[in-house]
Amino acid sequence: MDLASRLADVDARITDAAHAAGRDASSLTRIVVTKFHPTDLIRDLHALGVRDVGENRLQELAGKVDAAHDLDGLRWHFIGQAQTNKVRLLAEVAARVPLTVHSLDRPRLVGALDRALHDADGRPPAVPVDVLLQINLTDDAGRGGVAPAELEQLAELAAAAASLRVRGVMAVAPLDEEAAPAFARLAGYAERVRAVVPDATWISAGMTGDFVEAIAAGATHLRIGSAITGPRPVHD
């Protein structure tokens, strides 16, 4: 199938999954992940009506924001692991385009990003940057994401940062577990965050292989790559 057909097929599957879960498909945000693909693909997606684009690597995100500066209405999503020593570049991107950071997962990163987003006079941005708290759904402490036991503390810290707006949670399903029970746990963690930040209603979950299960568990934002974009280009 060509790009338009793949996009239409995924959107039909999203609609079917939403209906099966008793949900309105129009309430879901489909983010197309364009990792390693050229900016020309983003232009083609934009022509097909796509407005939410996700990137895993910060340098690639910044480069594509530059290259696609003439495309109206794009909303960018950084879904990769953020490093504290690169938050200045993340802040520069956020100053230029609508950006949601999906991977806020530790207090040190909250502080570093908050400081980077303040201007030289110490003032926060007029519009806070949307962030999601990434939660580790595994027992491996080396995986990205805050441990569930530390979730409320991180939510309180992020909510107190003047430059940030906590919109909800994000997670990746474990490789060694069925997606459905993992996403059910995520829905419970999302409730805990809403007890701290009542309007943090977003749940970013579900990729090409498990977005149906994510929708059933209440996901609001789906991060879908190869099912729409096709195979990723070979990359060193």
Descriptive overview:
The chain has helices at 3-20, 39-47, 58-67, 87-94, 107-117, 151-160, 179-196, 211-216, 226-229, and strands spanning 29-33, 52-55, 75-78, 99-104, 129-134, 164-170, 202-204, 221-224. It is of the alpha/beta class. Strands 7-6-5-4-3-2-1-8 form an 8-stranded parallel beta sheet. Strand 1, helix 2 and strand 2 form a beta-alpha-beta unit. Helix 4 crosses helix 5 (107-117). It is globular and about 50 Å long.
Set down the secondary structure blueprint.
Elements lengths: L2 H18 L8 E5 L5 H9 L4 E4 L2 H10 L7 E4 L8 H8 L4 E6 L2 H11 L11 E6 L16 H10 L3 E7 L8 H18 L5 E3 L6 H6 L4 E4 L1 H4 L7
Parallel strand pairs: 1-2, 1-8, 2-3, 3-4, 4-5, 5-6, 6-7
Helix pairs in contact: 4-5, 6-7
Determine the number of helices (DSSP H or I, runs of at least 4 residues).
Answer: 9
Tally of DSSP β-strands: 8
- Mean pLDDT over all positions: 96
User: How would you sum up the major sheet?
Assistant: 8 strands, parallel
**Shape designation:** globular
Radius of gyration: 17 Å
Q: Determine the structural class based on helices, strands and strand pairing.
A: alpha/beta
* Number of domain modules: 1
* Arrangement of strands in the largest sheet: 7-6-5-4-3-2-1-8
CATH homolog superfamily: Alanine racemase
